[in-house]
Amino acid sequence: MSMEAIRQITEAEARADQVVADAQAEAKKIAAEATAQAAAIAEKARAQIKEMTQNAVAEANETSRKHYEEEMKTADETCEQLKQGAQANLDRAAKFIMERVVKV
Questions:
Q1: How far apart are CA 77 and CA 64, in angstroms?
Q2: Cα 2 to Cα 7, 14, 16, 68, distances in angstroms
Q3: Secondary structure, 3-state, the chain
Q4: pLDDT by residue (tens digit) across 12-60?
Q5: Under 8 Å CB-to-CB from 39, ≥6 apart: which residues?
Q6: How many CB atoms sit inside 10 A of residue 49's CB?
Q7: Domain boundaries in the chain?
Q8: What global pTM score does this model have?
Q9: For residue 81, how many C-alpha atoms fall within 13 Å in the half-sphere facing its CB?
């Protein structure tokens, strides 16, 4: 084999080694970028889930507050009706007691 052929083979092998090394470096770079992108996507998803959870809790609290206020309003109205009914019966009860005491 001539020296020129050996030199060409050696250069071709060196170029091939460089191509392989470049490809491996590019593969590592792509893998690192993909890992970083996956981490960013995961963090964004966590933030969205946190926000959705906070919104759901806030909405549930608001619904509960409104329900509580409605129930309290109903209870207050019922108490007022009972109070008025009791007040109306108070005069009758006093009259009834006086009649019983006076007759006895």
A1: 20
A2: 9, 18, 21, 98
A3: CCHHHHHHHHHHHHHHHHHHHHHHHHHHHHHHHHHHHHHHHHHHHHHHHHHHHHHHHHHHHHHHHHHHHHHHHHHHHHHHHHHHHHHHHHHHHHHHHHHHHHHC
A4: 999 999 999 999 999 999 999 999 999 999 999 999 999 999 999 999 9
A5: none
A6: 10
A7: 1-104
A8: 0.56
A9: 6
Q: How deeply is 62 buried, as exposed, middle or buried, from its count of CB atoms within 10 A (0-12, 13-18, 19+)?
A: exposed
Give the model confidence (pLDDT) of 69-100 as tens digits: 999 999 999 999 999 888 888 888 888 888 88
Give residue for tokens 């806030």. Answer: 58
Per the listing, tokens 């020296």 go with 3
